[in-house]
From TrEMBL:
<feature type="region of interest" description="Disordered">
    <location>
        <begin position="244"/>
        <end position="272"/>
    </location>
</feature>
<keyword id="KW-1003">Cell membrane</keyword>
<feature type="transmembrane region" description="Helical">
    <location>
        <begin position="218"/>
        <end position="236"/>
    </location>
</feature>
<dbReference type="InterPro" id="IPR002994">
    <property type="entry name" value="Surf1/Shy1"/>
</dbReference>
<protein>
    <recommendedName>
        <fullName>SURF1-like protein</fullName>
    </recommendedName>
</protein>
<dbReference type="Pfam" id="PF02104">
    <property type="entry name" value="SURF1"/>
</dbReference>
<dbReference type="InterPro" id="IPR045214">
    <property type="entry name" value="Surf1/Surf4"/>
</dbReference>
<keyword id="KW-0472">Membrane</keyword>
<feature type="transmembrane region" description="Helical">
    <location>
        <begin position="18"/>
        <end position="38"/>
    </location>
</feature>
<keyword id="KW-0812">Transmembrane</keyword>
<keyword id="KW-1133">Transmembrane helix</keyword>
<comment type="similarity">
    <text>Belongs to the SURF1 family.</text>
</comment>
Amino acid sequence: MSDPAPQPLWRTAVQARWLGILALALAIAAVMTAMGVWQLGVYRSKTATATAERAAAAPVPLQSLFSIDDGLPSKAVGRQVTISGTWGPSADQVFMSDRLQDGKYGFWVVSPLKLSDTEAVMIVRGWVPSVSDPAVKAPSGPVTLTGAVVASEAEDSSDDAAKGRVLSSLRIPTIVHLVKYRVYDAFVVQTSAAGTSPAPAAVVPPPPPTDHAGLRNVAYAFQWWIFAAFTLWMWGRMVLDAHRSPDDDSDADSAEGDRGEAPVEPSGTVST
């Protein structure tokens, strides 16, 4: 007599006890998933808050954040700074093309502010509709100004520098070859100063990059989601193991039947 066909896996999974365990596993996984989403929200809140606080902090001297010998630290990007110096010559100005302002394209005017005879900071003084605008004329004399620190843009503009002083990208590595003194590894977008008239239109500093503080919360979020997936995986593994293993109840019944069956006695002989 052939063995009965094995029970399909889904028949095991829909048994009452496994459905009950599944409901519990889904509830636990849902809580863990919600905890992961909450941790991700904490991370986003931290980064947004940190970025806003950095941009809103009171101005500090540029030299207190980093020196001309250092690269631009991420914590300095977006900070308001004060700088005192003397404007450099008009010949050292450069212009950034294709800059949108009030729905119109024009140029950013970038002028050096000399801190000494050998050191300077490149200042984005503002926006003009053309490089021939009267406001392009470089100011002269000493000045103390306030502005926001911005980093170099990614696009290479070295080819533009070979053709003139109108560049497509705001990059310190390009500008260092256009001036005869050392410059800081950052630009400062001027927000206030005792300026001359006419002056370029004020430029809104680009938003600082998101601060990556709070990455620990991202790790926590992924941990919760991994735990949630593991909970459901464990339920599936338990069901599979139960499906593959023999039915203990059936084995017990078989054993009882074997013990209760009387042995067959050999037939005796009839005496005469």
